[in-house]
Amino acid sequence: MNTLPDGTSELIERLDEQPPLVPDELTQYILGKSGQGSSDPRVTRLISLAGQRFISAVVNETLQLCKTRETASKRQLKQGGYVEKRVLMTEDLSKALKEYGVHLRRPQFYLDDDSRVETSAPK
């Protein structure tokens, strides 16, 4: 007997009510590139929702890491009259993604390369 977990049938029925953050067209494109195409729009929408959940979890984790990083220097900044604005750094995102098994590497053009720096000495 094939039984669905509680709420699954309701979820499937409600898939069309609200469009996900990840557009269906993008999901279909990525599925096609990976050889996993689907003709059922409900499958595509379900995968889009899973992608949205992943993005939400990563952004939330990145924000928590950002808050932790900023807490250490917060007192010093407030004494200097700094108005608080959060800036999510690539390092925060990299740490958050590592927890989900995704490792970021910087492209070569971000690496320090002294040969690209031109110095012009006055003559």
From TrEMBL:
Pfam families: TAF10 (PF03540). GO terms for cellular component: SAGA complex; transcription factor TFIID complex. It comes from the Eukaryota. InterPro entries: TAF10 (IPR003923). One of its GO terms (biological process) is transcription initiation at RNA polymerase II promoter. This is Transcription initiation factor TFIID subunit 10. The keyword Transcription regulation applies. Keywords: Nucleus, Transcription, Transcription regulation. Belongs to the TAF10 family. GO terms for molecular function: promoter-specific chromatin binding; RNA polymerase II general transcription initiation factor activity. It is found in: Nucleus.
